[in-house]
Amino acid sequence: MKRLGHLNSAVGMNSAIMPQLVTTLSRELGGELVEVACAPLGAARTALLTAPGVVEAAIFGDKLHVVLGQGGLTSETLPDFLQTHGVQTGQIRDVVPSLEDVFFRIVSRAQDARSAA
Fold first, then answer.
1. Sheet with 63-68, side-by-side order of all strands
2. SS3 sequence, the chain?
3. What is the sign, positive or negative, of the torsion defined by CA atoms of 62, 39, 74, 106?
4. Contact call for residues 57 and 43 (beta carbons, < 8 A)
């Protein structure tokens, strides 16, 4: 939980609450959240949405936030996958899910449910 130190102090939470919050947010997302620096973003998102194990891919500023579920791409295999789709990759790192990430996922699920009905 060392990487959460900056977030603990930023939101004034003690170290007992923070791991529980991160676990809850990660569970709501449905997988591991990684931030991917890549270009072009649109092509990367389109390719990732068809990739095995990718739960969600959303543009966040000049990067993608990608939720990786079980049995598919991992943060280690992501660069090769994107390069085969003509996407240049930069840094890929685990990130702590934000409320915005969870909100985006909930809205996406609702839209998927409406489309399926």
1. 54-60, 63-68, 32-39, 88-94
2. CHHHHHHHHHHCCCCCHHHHHHHHHHHHHCCEEEEEEEECHHHHHHHHCCCCCEEEEEEECCEEEEEECCCCCCCCCHHHHHHHCCCEEEEEEECCCCHHHHHHHHHHHHHHHHHHC
3. positive
4. no
> What type of residue is 31?
G
Q: Which two tokens stand for residue 58?
A: 């959303």
pLDDT digits (tens, 9 = 90+) for 26-65: 666 678 889 999 999 999 999 999 999 999 898 989 999 9
> What's the whole-model pTM score?
0.71
